[in-house]
Design brief:
Elements: E1 7-15, E2 26-30, H1 38-47, H2 54-72, E3 78-79, E4 83-90, E5 104-111, H3 113-120, E6 122-129, E7 135-141, E8 150-151, E9 156-162, E10 174-179, E11 184-186, E12 192-195, E13 199-203, E14 211-221, E15 226-239
Parallel strand pairs: 1-6, 8-15
Antiparallel strand pairs: 1-2, 3-4, 4-5, 7-9, 9-13, 10-11, 10-14, 12-13, 14-15
Length: about 260
């Protein structure tokens, strides 16, 4: 059965080094949104509002890893749905004896049915030339560590991505929040905590009510220069608790959040 979940991934255009003579032939490079270690994965699982305690999630996570290692190292092929894994040996066996200096165990991984289905349900956004696009890759409520676009009034909220540094003289430059009724709240500079190209952190005004807000960041920041025309990214955030099923994705492309 096809998944209902839709995924989005961003790509940036780069010169195709294989076809040097063809300047119109471009390759597409995935935009890296960082890496996810065990702590990040567990945090994302908690953000799904599963109702499970963190220690329960961590126990199941560790148990799965332990079982899969035991199965693979016993010669059992493992199919998790995400991947199919099997063990093989490398190196020539001499005198019918295993020699760790010359022989090694390798594990082969192939894409599983669940991951193939996710690939089919993924939309690719081309967001400009490599190194030039502005986008939000992820968000975090600094007080709760939540990654599900929820925010806490009076506490810091952090955006991660590229070209996010707020700078420029145009009147539109800045950070604003718009509630569901259209009321606009500007995040004044005294509430900015960190203003960098890859990370923007600011305090959510303490007087804002709980609810859904449109967050818009507008800047003239470019690589080593100011843009003549400001550009923006827009993302939906939730002051208070995010709706059930909310993820860490966004809502659009340039002039929107390209993560969808």
């Amino acid at each position: 059965m096809s998944e209902e979940i839709r995924y989005q991934i961003n790509g940036q255009l780069a010169d195709n080094t294989v076809t040097v003579d063809n300047k119109e032939d471009m390759s597409l490079v995935p935009v890296s949104n960082g890496s996810a270690d065990e702590e990040r994965i567990i945090a994302e699982m908690k953000a799904e509002d599963s109702g499970l305690r963190e220690e329960t999630i961590r126990h199941v996570f560790d148990l799965e890893k332990r079982v899969i290692k035991r199965l693979l190292m016993s010669g059992v092929s493992v199919n998790t749905g995400l991947y199919y894994a099997s063990v093989n040996f490398h190196g020539v066996i001499e005198n019918s004896a295993w020699n760790p200096a010359k022989n090694s165990i390798v594990v082969n991984f192939n894409v599983g049915a669940d991951l193939r289905e996710a690939i089919k349900n993924t939309v690719v956004n081309i967001i400009g030339a490599k190194g030039s696009a502005m986008y939000i890759a992820g968000v975090q409520d600094t007080s709760t560590r939540a990654l599900d676009s929820s925010a806490t009034a009076g506490r810091a909220f952090t955006l991660k991505g590229a070209m996010l540094k707020v700078t420029g003289t145009d009147d539109s430059v800045g950070i604003i929040l718009t509630d569901s009724k259209g009321t606009i709240t500007k995040i004044t500079e005294d509430l900015w905590v960190l203003n960098e190209p890859s990370r923007l952190s600011f305090i959510i005004p303490s007087g804002l009510d709980k609810g859904t807000y449109e967050l818009k960041v507008t800047t003239q920041y470019g690589q080593g220069h100011l843009l003549k025309t400001p550009r923006s990214v827009i993302k939906t955030i939730y002051i208070g608790m995010a709706p059930t099923g909310g993820g860490s994705g966004g809502d659009g492309g340039i002039e929107d959040d390209p993560l969808g």
